[in-house]
TrEMBL record:
This is Ribosomal RNA large subunit methyltransferase E. InterPro entries: RNA_methyltr_RlmE, RNA_MeTrfase_FtsJ_dom, rRNA-MeTfrase_E, SAM-dependent_MTases_sf. It catalyses: uridine(2552) in 23S rRNA + S-adenosyl-L-methionine = 2'-O-methyluridine(2552) in 23S rRNA + S-adenosyl-L-homocysteine + H(+). Its main location: cytoplasm. The lineage of its organism: Bacteria, Pseudomonadati, Pseudomonadota, Gammaproteobacteria, Alteromonadales. Residues 28-204 form the Ribosomal RNA methyltransferase FtsJ domain. GO terms for molecular function: methyltransferase activity. The gene is rlmE. The active site is at residue 161. Belongs to the class I-like SAM-binding methyltransferase superfamily. RNA methyltransferase RlmE family. It is found in: Cytoplasm. S-adenosyl-L-methionine binds at residues 60, 62, 80, 96, 121. Keywords: Cytoplasm, Methyltransferase, rRNA processing, S-adenosyl-L-methionine, Transferase.
Amino acid sequence: MARSKTSKKWLDEHVNDPYVQKAQRDGYRSRASYKLIELNEKDSLFKSGSVVMDLGAAPGGWSQIVAPIVGESGRVIASDILPMDGIAGVDFIQGDFTEASVYEQILNSLGSSQVDSVISDMAPNMSGVNTTDQHASMYLVELALDMARNVLKPGGSFCAKVFQGVGSEAFTKEVRASFSKVIVRKPAASRPRSREIYLVAKGFKA
């Protein structure tokens, strides 16, 4: 079946993307790894010994960055609806965390631990209908914030991908209500035409 012009354009852009090529050379599972590297360098989201929750983790590009940094004294709890190949030092829970059973699994894996940082690179399966996609993306990031409010320790941090559009400004205000400092970032590895930004929130007000 012939590819549409749009999908061919995306494929050409993807193959020629310098961050895709760099990820292949560096052994990272995703070009998104470079987004988190930059965010952590600027905002110190996690360090040795941190407990980090990675939502929307598959294929593992972010967990790959976190696990070596937090080390054996830290923990990474990752979750996604899609499968993910194992990463040393990462506890992975597959399932839809909007379902109570999966949510409970994630909390049970934490045990008595509180989380230093919740990170989310979640995005819905894009339909191509802007209003539908925006609604779906805001729903996911709101769930990520809800999880963060439930598991973060006082002073903890939250970093999530947000697509600018309907609901994004209201969501940013909501995040500001729960954290002492909120910064908007657009990492270099984010495609310039993408509406994605990353909200980095520090100082959780438990």
